[in-house]
Amino acid sequence: GRFDADVDLSFDGRQWRPDIVLQCHDVSFTYYRFPYRLSGGQGTWEYRDGKLTTQDFHAVVHGRPVVFHADLANPGENFTGMFSFQVPQPVPLDEEFLAALPARPQAIVRSLQPRCEWTATGRFERTHPTGPITRSVDIDIHRGSVQYTPFPYPLTGIHGQLRWRDDRWEV
User: Fold this and answer.
1) DSSP state letter for 132
2) If you count DSSP H runs as helices and E runs as strands, how many of each does the chain have, helices first?
3) What is the spatial distance between Cα 7 and Cα 19, in angstroms, rounded to a whole number?
4) Please, are residues 117 and 90 in contact by the beta-carbon 8 Å criterion?
5) Rounded distance, CA 101 to CA 33, Å?
6) What is the DSSP letter of 108?
7) Which among 79, 17, 69 is positioned nearest to 47, based on CA atoms?
8) Nearest-CA neighbor of 5 among 37, 47, 33, 36?
9) CA distance 36 to 39
10) d(Cα 4, Cα 24) in Å, to the nearest integer?
């Protein structure tokens, strides 16, 4: 992708202090735990005084926007703060999305032979560096259908919400 970077490194005699402003113009990326490629990334990421932030960083999936917000102190394994995303316009469920799922959930979802469009919001937050990460993802299903492989009777007109809360799914 393309980006501009403004980097200021200062050294106080003991420690380096980076201040970085990254202006993204057209970046593509995936998250290693859910390798679903996003493209067209635009917006600004800033790292100042040990804090990583972005407001309204936008990317695209299937021509639909994905919006990110982040306010993370000490980014890395012991971060605190929050990261959120929103997919406000319906996106078709496709092979690329299914392939990005972990093996066990992927097998379950594939057995349903789903067809749908989806929107989503998510938020990941931690208040203490060694505390648990609070995870919340809501996926809204639009114009859905399933046909479970062992019982191939089609169900259509499905609308609803899947909720993920700290490693637990709810329908």
Assistant:
1) P
2) 2, 10
3) 6
4) yes
5) 9
6) H
7) 17
8) 47
9) 10
10) 7
A 10 A CB-CB count for 45 gives 20
- Choose among 47, 91, 89: nearest CA to 70: 47
Burial degree of 141 (CB within 10 A; 0-12, 13-18, 19+): buried
Give residue 38's pLDDT.
97
Q: What are phi and psi of 165, to 5 degrees?
A: -130, 110
Residue 31, both tokens:
């998250």
Between CA 3 and CA 24 the distance in angstroms is 4
Helix (H, G, I), strand (E, B) or coil at 106: helix
- pTM equals 0.89
Structure confidence at residue 130 as a pLDDT band (50, 70, 90): very high
Instruction: For residue 104, give the H/E element and its range.
Output: helix 103-111
Dump pLDDT digits (tens) for 88-103: 999 999 999 999 999 9
Look-up: residue for tokens 């593509």?
A: 28
Q: What are phi and psi of 136, to 5 degrees?
A: -145, 120
Nearest residue to 122 (alpha-carbon basis) of 132, 133, 135 = 135
**Rounded (5°) CA angle 133-137-139:** 170
31's CB contacts (< 8 A; 6+ apart) are: none
